[in-house]
Structure formats: structure tokens, C-alpha cells
Amino acid sequence: MAAIMEKLSLKLFNSNSRNETSKQRCVINRLRHASGYTQQDVGFSLIELVIVIFMIGILSAIAAPSWLAFVNRQQINKASDAVLAALQDTQRQAKNKKLSYSISFQKNTTSQNVEVAIYNTNAGISTWKPLGADVGVSSDKFLLGTNLSSENTAGSSVSYTLSTSTKITFDYMGTLPNASFGTPIAPSTEPPGLKIVVAVPSSANSTSPSSVKRCVIVKTLLGSMITAKDSPNCD
């Protein structure tokens, strides 16, 4: 008897469940018809997808140059910081070791990396290192130039052709012996100083600098340094 009652209960339960499900479906169908919804409204049409893809392409084309410019500025900011740190390290070693120390830069023709060497002036260069490698800078992505015409001597303009003979040397006191900081360029009345410039390459010519530049300038015989950006400060 108990088994029969249990079967009847299950049948009633299943019947009620089916009724409830059927009622829910009816309500949903009525709402769909009332709102004009049909099965064809599910998903996206091909035209809609094409429009979305087209809009994404336009937005990407607008945003990409701004993003690239931001990345380039971040890179040369780091590169400029690396130049400043290298100059300060050269000066510090000269004072600590009571010896004359020099810093030179070059463009590695094989790897295209900008490299830096800090060395005892009398011993000469023993090791070149990629500039800014310790702070994640790709030194083959920017140009480096100086206004040095010879050791501790500022020329009339910045050249992006590097020579190891155009170096900056600090004596055992950390000062710059026999330094010439150049001729003032009107309307300025101050000498330009010894400049090390990093620049984003021009989009038209990868060997020429764009207007986006950062520089470190050694200003006095005591070896004081400042940083600057863009024209005319870094020209």
C-alpha cells in the first residue's frame, strides 16, 4: 500500500512540475510576442559584426600613435636617467679613487645598441655596456648625440655621430679640467654646456632625431649637471 501511495505522489509531483514549466513557457512566449521578440533576434547579424569591427579599427588607428608616442617618451626618459646616472658614477669614482675618470659613448655597429664606458682615463677603455640595460631600456630604439667637439669641449651643435675621442673627463676632485662650455647662443647669455642628448628617431629617417629629445647638461667646472627636454634646450 505504501509503495502505491509513493508512486501516486511522484506522479502528482511530476504532473505539477510539468504544469508549472508549461505555465512559465506560456508566460515567456506571451512576453516575447508582446515585445515583438522573435527567435531571429538572437545574436548579431553580419552587418552588425562588420560595423563593430570597423569601429574598432578606427579607434585603434586613432589610439595607436598616441600610445606609441607615450612609449617612446617613457623610453627616452629612462635613457636620459641612465645617462645622468653614468655621468654621476664617473664623477663619484674619480673622487673616491682620487684618479682621473672618463665616460665615453658609442653606437655598436653590430647590435645597433648605444653603449657606454666608464674608465680610468690613464688605463683606457676596457668594457662597453649597453646604455640603460639595467632599467629595461632598449638602446637600439633611440639616438644618442653630443655637442662635444673634443674632450670636455662643447661645439656649436649636437651631432649624432659618436666618437670615443669626444669624452667627458673628471679629475681626482670630480671637477672638469680645462673645460670649455661653448659660446652663448642669443638670446641666451649662458654657455650651452656639455650636452648628452637622447632622441626618438624621426619617422621619415631613422638616423635623424625627431623633436622628442631629453638631455643631460654638465654646466660648470665643478661638474654640476641639469636635465632638460626638447628644443632649444637639447639642440
Within the CATH hierarchy, at the fold level, what is the topology?
minor pseudopilin epsh fold
Strand order of the largest sheet: 5-4-7-8-9
- CATH homologous superfamily caption: minor pseudopilin epsh domain
Percent of residues in helices comes to 25-40%
Number of domains: 1
Low-confidence stretches: 2-15
Number of strands: 9
Shape: elongated
**Average pLDDT number:** 83
Radius of gyration: 35 Å
| CATH architecture label name | 3-Layer(bab) Sandwich
Tell me, what is the CATH class?
Answer: Alpha Beta
Major pleated sheet = 5 strands, antiparallel
Order of helices and strands: HHEEEEEEEEE
Instruction: Tell me what portion of residues adopts beta-strand conformation.
Output: 15-25%
**How far apart are the first and last residues' alpha carbons, in Å?**
104 Å
